[in-house]
Amino acid sequence: MCTGKCSRCIAITLYPLVVISIICNIVLFFPDGDVSYAKDGHITEEVKYMGGLIGGGILVLLPALYIHLTGKEGCCGNRCGMFLSIAFAAVGVAGGLYSIIVAVLGLQNGPLCKTVLVWTTPFKELTGDNNYLQNDKLWSLCTEPKNIVQFNLGLFGTLLATSCLQVILCAIQMINGLFGCLCGTCNKEAQIA
């Protein structure tokens, strides 16, 4: 496969992952579909880091756009374009890693929720057998918002999965860009001769 076609495939695959990351991050601001929690500041701290919006969103969208333009019509414009795609893909890797870190912290610390009368992160200090990820009986500690543990698990888990895919794809593009830079890009004139 031509390095340009590979770039185009990677970029097209990154677009839906970017959209999923952004949507997950935005939805995390509204537990139980209610805006009052965001207004009152009762949202999980890791949501405010905006790993899905900034990391898996903007920092991956910029490389995806450049990589897509680099691979336009199956070939790259020149070696310099492929070299720049390496730098842009590195930005995508950094964005994906940021999103992974935020998602892992969100899963590890658990949600901010109301326990009896106090808003707290009840699972933050729990380890071992008391880990809320392994013991779903602990989920009942959270009384408000409704189903906040499942809400956070689903969305942070989705962010983690999409971010891992983004890092893998951007790393592949770095290797692809290196080949395109060192070996040259394929174009129609070279294929005919």
UniProtKB/TrEMBL annotation:
It comes from the Eukaryota. InterPro entries: L6_membrane. It holds the Pfam family L6_membrane. The chain crosses the membrane at residues 12-30, 50-69, 81-107, 148-172. This is Transmembrane 4 L six family member 21a. Keywords: Membrane, Transmembrane, Transmembrane helix. It is found in: Membrane. One of its GO terms (cellular component) is membrane. It is a multi-pass membrane protein. The keyword tRNA-binding does not apply. The keyword Membrane applies. Belongs to the L6 tetraspanin family. It comes from Oreochromis niloticus (Nile tilapia). The gene is LOC106096671. Its main location: membrane.
